[in-house]
Write a structure and sequence with these properties.
Elements lengths: L6 E11 L5 H5 L2 E10 L3 H6 L8 H14 L5 H15 L4 E9 L9 E8 L4
Antiparallel strand pairs: 1-2, 2-3, 3-4
Helix pairs in contact: 3-4
Length: about 120
């Protein structure tokens, strides 16, 4: 991983799913938004201009949407963890930050979103 703080990021991946702690939340679908930052050295790809030398963010989006819509989670922490695990299964050498937001959650005060941020170091 680069000491310079190189990163690939994808902001605003959205999907509709039935995640939530209560049975009532899991019966209906709701919008979720995901932001992902992947920390890795980009020196080679910045010189080569070849996708083979980097991480394809289309794959990252696909992983997030497949996990977000293909499984049901009670906690946003578990959803964010599954997304991080999914990306690191393909790229164990990257550090990753995953932010998952539940849009318009059923909470007092009508917040626009609630969410979690999960940070993982590269797997060794």
């Amino acid at each position: 991983m680069s000491d310079a703080g190189d990163a690939i990021y994808v902001n605003g991946i959205e999907f509709e799913a039935s995640h939530g702690y209560t049975v009532a939340e899991r019966k209906l679908t709701r919008r979720f938004r995901c932001h992902i930052e992947i920390r890795r050295d980009l020196a080679v790809s910045s010189r080569s201009d070849r996708i083979q030398d980097t991480l394809d963010y289309r794959t990252v989006c696909q992983i997030a949407v497949e996990i977000g819509t293909g499984r049901t989670f009670r906690l946003l922490e578990a959803l964010a963890g599954a997304i991080a695990d999914g990306v690191q299964e393909h790229h164990p050498d990257v550090g990753i930050t995953v932010v998952v937001e539940k849009l318009s959650p059923p909470c007092p005060g009508a917040p626009a979103a609630t969410g979690v941020r999960l940070v993982r170091l590269p797997r060794q």
